[in-house]
Amino acid sequence: MKIKILYEDKDILVIDKPSGISVHPDGRSKEKTITDWFIKNYPKAKNVGESIFVDGKEIKKPGIVHRLDKETSGALLLIKNQKAYELLKDQFKNREIRKVYNAIVCGFMKDERGVIRKSIGRSPNDFRKRLAGRGARGELREAITEYSVLKRFEDKKNKFTYLEVRPKTGRTHQIRVHMKFINHPVANDSLYNPNKPYPKGLDRLALHARSIEFKDLKGNIVKIQSSLPKEFEKVIK
After folding, report:
1. What digits encode the pLDDT tens for the residues 39-50?
2. Where in the chain are the domains?
3. Quick check: pTM over 0.90?
4. How far is CA 215 from the centre of its chain?
5. Residue 190 has pLDDT above 70, yes or no
6. Residue 214 pairs with which residues in a beta bridge?
7. Of 81, 75, 94, which Cα lies nearest the Cα of 46?
8. What is the tens place of the pLDDT at every residue in 212-227?
9. Do 83 and 217 meet the contact criterion of CB atoms below 8 Å apart?
10. Cα 92–chain centre separation
């Protein structure tokens, strides 16, 4: 597995996660994950962080303080030691981490910018999915997403909007769920927008983690940016 490193110090690593690779194991698939790569290359970080339980099985998440969906690409933080893990975990909890995404969504968005404030719960029909608005089940967690329009374009008479998206909270599938909620789902999203048109040449989820900003252990602000994938550039040119 070839992974590009965007930033590294003695405590923190930021990688350029490729689309199509899961961050950590799900207890079912045997596919290699970012976690596997991290443990192999940074074995001292093996016991950093916490574990999760999936179907009664304990799954280690060494160095993982946040995650990107399997099909999402871009800047991903990995933590090398427990002290840094606790610091970054608190920054996420206190909403001090600034994340910027780029997304291509279906349809022409009317407003140049906006804020989506809609709590997210679980879908009553599919355990894999989350839901905003009517019908959401379980605990409804506050979710806030800001967006700005960068470009509107057409591809074979299908309309799309290219966005900068700034999630203020970190809910599972938040951007995908919120865009679906306002009837502009992310293009080529097999879970929330199946069988709908997407730009020619974009054979993956149209969501990319463009940048992440955080404080290191010395209190310095660090902002790391991931280049826009070539498949995005070709579509929005």
Report:
1. 999 999 998 987
2. 1-94, 98-210
3. yes
4. 20
5. yes
6. 222
7. 81
8. 999 999 999 999 999 9
9. yes
10. 14
Q: Which of 69, 111, 126, 203 is catalytic?
A: 69
User: Cβ-count burial of 61 within 10 angstroms (0-12 exposed, 13-18 middle, 19+ buried)?
Assistant: middle
Residue 60 confidence class, pLDDT cut points 50, 70, 90 = low
Residue 91 burial (CB count, 10 A): 17
How sure is the predictor about 80, in pLDDT bands with cuts at 50, 70 and 90? Answer: very high
What fold, for 98-210?
A: Pseudouridine synthase (3.30.2350)
The topology (CATH level 3) of 1-94 is Pseudouridine synthase (3.30.2350)
Same fold, 1-94 and 98-210: yes
Q: What angle do CA 190, 192, 197 make, to 5 degrees?
A: 60
**Active-site residue, 69 included:** yes
